[in-house]
Amino acid sequence: MFEGKVALVTGAGKGIGCEIIRELARGGAKCVVNYASSAAGAEEVVKEIEAMGGQAYAYKCDVSDYAQAEQMIADVLDKYGRIDILVNNAGITKDNLMLKMTEEDFDAVLNVNLKGAFHCMKAVTKPMMKQRYGRIINITSIVGVIGNAGQVNYAASKAGMIGMTKSAARELASRNITVNAVAPGFIETDMTEVLPDSVKEQLLSQIPMKKLGQTADIANAVCFLADEKASYITGQVLQVNGGMAM
Ligand code: NAP
Question: In three state form, how does the secondary structure of 74-129 look?
């Protein structure tokens, strides 16, 4: 599926990103496992990929810093010669009701989730244009589509990613580069583990499938969009949420 392709997933040392990079590796992609603090998780997934006969390496980079993101892409090009698939998965939450939310917490979430994705997209654009091939997939959220009390910063970042995805898709379509977003609903990871049981029960009551999603559900959707066969799909938001929003 991805033989001869090079894939970079941000925030791939754990959670959804980790499953996405594994699935791309299973499809034969050479993988770059970006992490910010999960060094052990990133090294472990590299070993897993190598054990199945694939190629991968871990790369520490804070995507909210443009210089670091640009250097990461330059280093990928040095090592593997090309970059075909970029998945902007890195994300954080700093939840609070708007009245109590600090400017620092607003900025921090926007800097990682929205600007981080912008930095990596901007840095891959030239090489992808040169090779006349690219697949960019931004991991947004159901919260960016329908909103969520206590998450104005996170919702703004994820809604921003959707606007950015559609605009970049229009800019890059003629170069054979597709830009799409995947909007997970509530998926079992560290990010949702911290939710109180009462909130989880409330969430489940709103999900027609009556269960949280798994990281594999998101990885499968990403691989569908990353495949060459998805060449006529761009500027779309694929919602993977058990029917929570339609
Ligand atoms: P998670 O387990 O908390 O993972 C978040 C990832 O983002 C980690 O790998 C983390 O890397 C990385 N990250 C954070 N700041 C970074 C930075 N400055 N530079 C590079 N990487 C950074 O959360 P998750 O649930 O897997 O979430 C993955 C993505 O899916 C996020 O964008 C999230 O908003 C989105 N999402 C999740 C859900 C859900 O229900 N779980 C729903 C909708 C959308 P380190 O650990 O190395 O610091």
Answer: HHHHHHHCCCCEEEECCCCCCCCCHHHCCHHHHHHHHHHHHHHHHHHHHHHHHHHH
